[in-house]
Amino acid sequence: MAEYEVREDAAILTIAVAAELAGMHAQTLRQYDRLGLVTPARTQGGSRRYSLRDVRQLREVARLSADGVSLPAISRILELEREVGELRQRVRELETHLRAEAENRPGARVFAAGLGGSVVPLRHGTRARRATEIVLWRPSRDS
Questions:
Q1: What is the pLDDT of residue 49?
Q2: Regions of the chain short of the pLDDT cut 50
Q3: Domain boundaries, the chain
Q4: Is 125 left (phi over 0), alpha (psi -120 to 50) or beta?
Q5: Residue 112 contacts by C-beta under 8 Å, 6 or more apart in sequence?
Q6: How far is residue 60's CA from residue 123's CA, in Å, rounded to a whole number?
Q7: Cβ pair 50, 8 in contact under 8 A
Q8: How far apart are CA 20 and CA 8, in angstroms?
Q9: What CATH number has the domain spanning 15-101?
Q10: Which of 70, 9, 77 is CA-nearest to residue 40?
Q11: What is the model's pLDDT at position 143?
Q12: Would you call 111 helix, strand, or coil by DSSP?
C-alpha cells in the first residue's frame, strides 16, 4: 500500500474527528469557530473541515484556557502569534532578497544615515549606532 504524507494545512478532518484529536467536545469547536479562535475551512455545503494545524491550535487554546487565560486574551495571543509568523516569513524573504542583491552587486556598500541626515559609510562587518538607520546604497545604473 502506498504511503501518503498529509500536509499540515490540508483541511480534511470532520468536526467529530478534530474534536476527538483535540480532546474536546464538538460543540466547543463550534463555539471556538464562532469566536474566531480556530476557524476551519468549509466545504461547498458549509461543513467544517479541520487541518492538523487547526487541531494543534485547538490544543493550544485548551492549554491556555486550562491555565486560566480568558478567551478574549487567547484570541489576542493567537492573533499576535499569526502576525509574528507572517513577520518571520517576511524577514526570511527579505534576507533571501538581500543575499541575492549582495551576490549580484559585490561592490555595493552599506551606509548609515545620521540623525542630521549625514551619510556615514560603514565598513563590512561593523554595526551602526542605534541612533542611525541602515540603508543599502545602490549606485544608479547610469554610473
A1: 95
A2: 143
A3: 15-101, 107-136
A4: left
A5: 119, 120, 122, 128, 129, 132, 133, 134, 135
A6: 46
A7: no
A8: 17
A9: 1.10.1660.10
A10: 9
A11: 47
A12: strand
